[in-house]
Amino acid sequence: MGSFCVKAFVSPFRLICGLLVVSAFGADSNLNDLLQSVQDRYNHAKTLQVLFKEQYTRAGKAPVTESGLLMLRKPGRMRWDYSQPKGKLVLSDGSALWIYNPAENRAEKMPLKQTEDMRAPMAFLLGKLNFQKDFRNIQGKAEGLYMTRITAQSNTESLPYSSVEFLVTRDSHIQEVKVTYYDKSVLDLTFDQERLDPSLDSKLFVFHLPPGVQLAGEQ
Question: Which domain holds residue 153?
Answer without folding.
Answer: 3-197
